[in-house]
C-alpha cells in the first residue's frame, strides 16, 4: 500500500512538472517570436528612414548651394563695385535669381545699416544686433553662416538667414550680405513622402536649435532640442537610433545625416505606433492561440491531479498536525512521555530530557528512570497518582513534584497524564502525558508569599530596628542566598544596618561607600554631596542607565554573571568607581534593590549568591516591591516614632502644666483628655468620669461657647483670654481665666482649652477693691473746695485713671483774699502706693507754706525732704504758683510739670522732678496779671493729650470764654481720651488792685 501511494504521488508530481514545462515552452517561444519580429520591423523602419534622410539631405544641399551662389554673387559685386552700385529690385526684375526660394535679400554696411534690399518699398533698418551680423563682425570664417529662424523686420515673416561677410580692400569688416529663405520650403519634402502618423522631419543646427521641424501638420521653428542628435552627429555623420521625442514624448526610430560643408543635419523619425501597427495585430493572434493552448494544458493537469487530491490533503494535514505538535512541544520546552504499562517501557521526548539538562537518550526510557529522579518527599504521592490512573483508567490526572536535574538542582515539574488504552478488565495498559517545568512559577509563588510575610512584619507594631532584622532573617531563610544585607542611610553614607553571609574582610572594606582621593580627602560631586562607590553607589544616587541591561526601570541593578564587570575598561570602571569586591568574593549573581521612602532613596537591599542564574526580571520586580514596602514602612515607622515622641512630650507638657488643660471635641462636646491640674481644679478624672461633657463643667450657655469656638476656628484659631465661671464636681463655682486654640488631631479640628484658677485672685481683688474705694473716697474728701471770690472764678478738675489717683492739688487764700496760693502734684505710677506718695508730698508742701519762705525756697525744701519717700525710678512732678491780685502778679515754679496755659497760650516752666536729687535746681517765673485773664494749671494727663491737639482750636480765642474752655477739658476727660491720672485748677481773674 505504501509503495502504491509513493508511485501515485510520483506520477502526479511528474504530470504537474510536465504541464508546467510545456506551458513554459509555449510562452517562452511566443516571447522569442514576438521579439524577433519586433526587431525585424525596427530594422525595416531604420532602412526606410535612412533612405528618406538621404533624400532630405540631397534636397537641402541643393537648396543651400543655390542660395549660397546668390550670397557669393552679391559679395563679389559689393566688394568690387560698392554696395551703392547694386540695385537688387532691378536684378530680381531681370530674373537674375529665378528659381531660387528666397524671400528677401539685402546688404548691410559695417554699422549694420541696411544699404540695399530687394524689399519694395525700401525700408531703412539697422540690424547690428542680429546674430548673423555679430557673428561676421567678430571674425571672417570664410563660410556661409546659417542663422536661427528669425522674423524679418521689414516683412515680419519668419525666415532662415544665410549670410556672408563683406570685407573692405584692407581686409577689415565692411558689412554683411544676407539672403532670407522661407523655412517651409525645406519641409515641402515631408508632403511628398508617407511616413505614417506622428512621424517627423527635422533640419537641425549643430548648436541644437531647430531650423525647421514638421510633425504631421505642426511646424516648429527655433526649438532648442536636447543635445542627443548633435552628440550623435559629432560621433558619426550618419546613423539611426530609438528615442523618445523631447517635445511630445512619442517613441520614434530616427535616422539622421550631417550635411557636408554646413553646420546642419537632417533627421527623419517614424513613430513606433506606425512601425508596429501590423505586428501588433499579428501578436494579438499569437497570444490568443497560446492562451487557448495553456487553458487546455492546465485543465488536463488539474483533472489528472484531482484524482489524488483528497488523499494528498489528508496526508498533508496529518503531517502538518504532527509538525505543529512537535514544534509546539519544542517551543514550550515541554516533555512528552508515553508509558506502556504492560512492558513498563516508556518513550521520553527530547524536550523531556532537555528540561532536566540531559541529552536525548542519556537515561533509559523506562518507568524506573522517572521514579529515580523524583524527590524523596514527592515520590510516594507521585507513584500513588500514576498507579491510581492505571487501576481506574482515569481520563486525566496531574501532579506537581520535584525532579533532580543533571546539575543537581531540584526542578518543579507539573505532570499530566491520560489513559489511552485499556485491557479487557478495564485496567489501563497505555498512558500518555506531558511534563512542564514550573520551577519559575513556584519561585514566584514563594517570593510572593515572602512579600506578603514582609508586609505582615511591617504592619506589626514593632520598632523599626526589630522589623528590619526580622525581614532580613526571613529573606535569608526563604531565598537561601549566600549573603543578604540591608543598608540604611546614616548621614550621607549607607552602612549595613543588618547583614549575614558576608566575610569580615568584605564588611571592613564595604561597610562605607564613601570614595576618597589619593590624599585621603572625601570626593564630592558637583552638588557638593559625597561620591558613593561601585554599583551600590550608582543605585543609591539614582544614577542608573535605562539603556544598560544591568539596570531596571525602577533603578535596580542585577546580573546572573557578574564576571563581565572585571572586563570593563579603566574609563568605564572609573565612571562608577568600581571596586569589584563582590565579584572577587565569588558572588556571580547579585541584585541591588533601592529602598525608597516616597521618592527619596533611604537604603539598599543587597542580595548575593555564588551560583549563576539566581534571578529573573520577574523575581527582581518582587524584590523591588519588597524594597518599596520597606521604604514605606521606614517612613511610616519614623513618623510613628516621631508621633510617639511628640505624644510623650505632649503628655509631659499636659501633666507638668500649672494650668488646667482639656481637649474637647466640639462636635459632640465631649472632653477627650484632661491633665492632673484639671482634676485638682474641677474634681473630674478620666476615664473614671467618662464620658465627660462640657455642659457638666461650664456654667455659661453652650451657645456662647459654640459661638466663641466658631469664631476661633474661622479667624485666628486662638481664643482671647476671658474670665468665666465653671462648676466643680461638688457643685461649687470656680472662677477661671480661660483661653484656648483649635488643634488638628488625626484630621479632626479639636479645641484645646487652658484654664487658670482665679478664685483666690477674685477674692483678693474684691477685698482690694473695697480698700481702694475707701481710699478713693478719703483721697477725694481731702481735696480743697474753694468758693468763688470777688477776685476770681475757680474751677478744679480731678480725673483718676483708676480708683485712686497719683495726682492731687491744693489751694488756699491768704492776705484777706488777695493772694491765692496753690500747687499741683503728679507722682509717677498708679495705685495705693502712688496715692500715699502723693499725700506725703501734699503734707510737705502745706508744711513748707507755714514758713516765711519764697515759693522757690519752699519747693527746694520739699525736694530735700521728699527724697526718702522715693526709691529707684519713682519721682514727683510739681507746679507751684502764687497769684497776687493786689499787685497783679503771678509767680510760678515748675518742678517736673513743664507748662501751664495763660489765656489759651502755653507757658513753659522748666525744672527738675522732685525726689530725684537732693540738690536739684529749680527756676522761678513771673508774669503780669490783668482783669479778665484766665489760667489753667494741668498735670500731664491733660497736657499729653493737648500736645496732640495744639492745632485743632481747642482753646477759645485768647482764652476769653473761660466756661467754654473748662467745659472742653471736662469733655476731654469724659470721652475717655485721657491715658493717665489727670488733675487741674482753672481760674479767671475778676479784679486786680
Task: Describe, in short, the structure shown.
This protein is an alpha+beta fold and 993 residues long.
Describe the 3D structure.
The chain is of the alpha+beta class and 993 residues long. Helix content is 39%, strand content 26%. The chain has 5 domains: 36-293, PAS domain (Beta-Lactamase, 2-Layer Sandwich), CATH 3.30.450.20; 333-437, Beta-Lactamase (2-Layer Sandwich); 443-642, 2-Layer Sandwich (Beta-Lactamase), CATH 3.30.450; 657-757, PAS domain (Beta-Lactamase, 2-Layer Sandwich), CATH 3.30.450.20; 767-989, Phosphatase 2c, domain 1. It contains 23 helices and 38 strands. The strands form 7 sheets. Strands 1, 2, 3, 4, 5 and 6 form a 6-stranded antiparallel sheet that branches.
Salient structural properties:
993 residues, alpha+beta, Beta-Lactamase, disordered N terminus
Topology record:
Blueprint: H1 2-81, H2 88-93, E1 102-109, E2 114-117, H3 131-138, E3 145-146, E4 150-151, E5 158-167, E6 173-181, E7 200-205, E8 210-215, E9 218-220, H4 228-235, E10 238-244, E11 251-258, E12 264-271, H5 272-275, H6 277-332, E13 335-340, E14 345-348, H7 350-354, H8 367-373, H9 376-392, E15 397-404, E16 410-422, E17 428-437, H10 439-459, H11 464-479, E18 483-488, E19 496-500, H12 504-510, H13 534-540, E20 557-559, H14 570-575, H15 581-584, E21 589-597, E22 600-609, H16 617-656, E23 660-665, E24 670-674, H17 676-682, E25 692-693, H18 702-714, E26 718-727, E27 733-745, E28 748-757, H19 759-782, E29 792-799, E30 807-814, E31 819-827, H20 832-849, H21 855-866, E32 876-884, E33 889-895, E34 899-902, E35 905-908, E36 923-928, E37 934-938, H22 940-947, H23 962-974, E38 982-989
Helix pairs in contact: 1-6, 10-11, 10-16, 20-21
